[in-house]
Specification:
By secondary structure, the chain is of the alpha/beta class. The chain folds into three domains: 86 residues, no CATH class; 149 residues, 2-Layer Sandwich (Nucleotidyltransferase, domain 5); 92 residues, no CATH class. 50% of the residues lie in helices and 10% in strands. It has 15 helices and eight strands. Strands 1, 2, 3, 4, 5, 6, 7 and 8 form an eight-stranded mixed beta sheet that branches. The longest helix is centred in the last third of the chain and has 47 residues. The radius of gyration is 27 Å and the shape is globular.
């Protein structure tokens, strides 16, 4: 796909009025569009395109859609439909006339995400931090981790064996393999006893049903492998390995497989009363202590100790803001790390007997301020698509986290601008009313 053509914003239309002339110029979305340096993204992402083939969609259009997706918490399909209905969306993505047609196919957003990758979306996060200017420059930061849940079902043995059976049947039909028995009807019947497996009356039936499902899946796997040619076995080797790994794993095993389509997912216990276990990847969030701007967002492919994530987190912060704060405040999950490079890591500790009251009050105030990162994580999950990640693979985890953080910074800037405009209008109205009273 070749480099996209850029639209000329100065070109006048004889048939249609300029879109910006019909919209509110003080709308936060339009103010944000004026502040973002779109030419920077054009220059950075242009080398990723070819000079041959059909021209692709403009980079500003695809980048603007990616920002709107997480800014408004929309899926790819819903975003494309809303782009036509809301005239502020086309204006944000660089259109100068009202559009009647869809901007692109929803799958084009997937291709764009794969094209620019994690490095490209880190540049978007850096641009969202730069909007806040001096507010993002602080010597103290807050660090915390959370779980970015993946879009998978709760992994029980019965569900996993049924998934294996379904994928193997699909594989056999695609390759034209005739099976001695498909077991479809029996698997459907065995689903019911496993539904209420924890009930005392159903435990025995459930154990037998799970054991039978495992037997069926293993038998089907071996039969398909026998009837496949060498080339077919080589093509499906990765899927066969995942199925066999899931059939062989025991309850107490480490590095268990929880999903066939997301094999990198791992289990984390975060101590929540309503949800004991979460399945996804660990995500580290870094914010400035006073302004609450997200200056770091990093996903980890393995469930590592929080304290061991600090060097990578600081390296990303330096890439994004070209400096590293001197003090990082964290919770007790980071204990054991007091200093990394030139950054001091401060965690809560029990007070000594001879500690002065003023020092205790200062430490208490510091860690209360650290708790401000918790609502930031809450907003990232509830408002910007961090609660459940629908993007494929670990690369999808990284991209979803970075764009959620960038959307949070963009939304924060928009709220601040709207607050300033409202205050200016209220002050002007007050002065006008006061001047009017002087005439009477």
């Amino acid at each position: 796909m070749s480099k996209p053509k850029t639209a000329n914003p100065n070109q006048q239309s004889f048939l249609h009025q300029n879109l910006l002339d019909q919209l509110n110029p003080k709308h936060p979305l339009l103010l944000l569009a004026r502040q973002i340096d779109w030419s920077y993204f054009d220059a950075e992402f242009a080398p990723l395109y070819s000079h041959l083939g059909k021209p692709s969609k403009p980079i500003r259009l695809m980048e603007g859609l990616s920002i709107l997706k997480h800014l408004e918490d929309l899926s790819d399909e819903v975003l494309i439909q809303c782009w036509i209905q809301n005239p502020y969306y086309p204006s944000f993505t660089g259109e100068i006339e009202f559009q009647w047609q869809l901007p692109c196919d929803p799958s084009d957003l997937t291709y764009f995400r794969k094209r620019i990758g994690k490095e490209g979306f880190e540049k978007v996060l850096a641009a969202s931090i730069a909007l806040h200017q001096e507010k993002a420059i602080e010597d103290k930061m807050c660090i915390d981790t959370t779980v970015q849940e993946k879009n998978i079902t709760f992994p029980t043995d019965a569900k996993q064996y049924r998934k294996i059976h379904g994928q193997l049947l699909k594989m056999a039909r695609a390759e034209g393999i005739v099976l001695s028995r498909s077991h479809e009807k029996e698997v459907k019947i065995l689903k019911l006893p496993t539904r209420f497996a924890t009930h005392p009356r159903n435990r025995k039936k459930a154990r037998k049903a799970v054991k039978r499902l495992k037997t069926i899946s293993g038998r089907l796997l071996r039969e398909i492998q026998r009837k496949m040619t060498g080339e077919q076995q080589k093509f499906y080797a990765e899927k066969f390995a995942l199925c066999q790994r899931m059939l062989n794993q025991k309850r107490a095993d480490k590095n268990k497989l929880y999903s066939l389509h997301e094999p990198h997912v791992y289990c984390m216990s975060k101590g929540k009363a309503q949800q004991r276990y979460e399945f996804g990847t660990k995500a580290s969030i870094t914010t400035t202590r006073d302004a609450g701007i997200v200056i770091g967002a990093l996903a980890f492919e393995k469930n590592v100790f929080d304290g061991h994530t600090v060097p990578e987190v600081l390296a990303q912060v330096k890439r994004l803001i070209n400096r590293v704060p001197k003090v990082g405040t964290a919770d007790r999950g980071y204990r054991g790390k007091s200093k990394v490079n030139d950054t001091q890591i401060v965690t809560p500790k029990p007070a000594r007997k001879n500690t002065l009251g003023e020092a205790m009050a200062l430490a208490r105030k510091r860690f209360r301020r650290r708790a401000g990162i918790e609502p930031v994580i809450g907003h990232l999950k509830s408002d910007h698509r961090l609660k459940r990640n629908f993007l494929k693979g670990f690369a999808g985890d990284q991209i979803n986290l970075l764009m959620a953080a960038a959307a949070f910074n963009f939304r924060k800037w928009m709220r601040e601008v709207l607050f300033v405009l409202k205050n200016i209008m209220s002050i002007l109205l007050f002065l006008f009313a006061k001047q009017k009273q002087q005439y009477y």
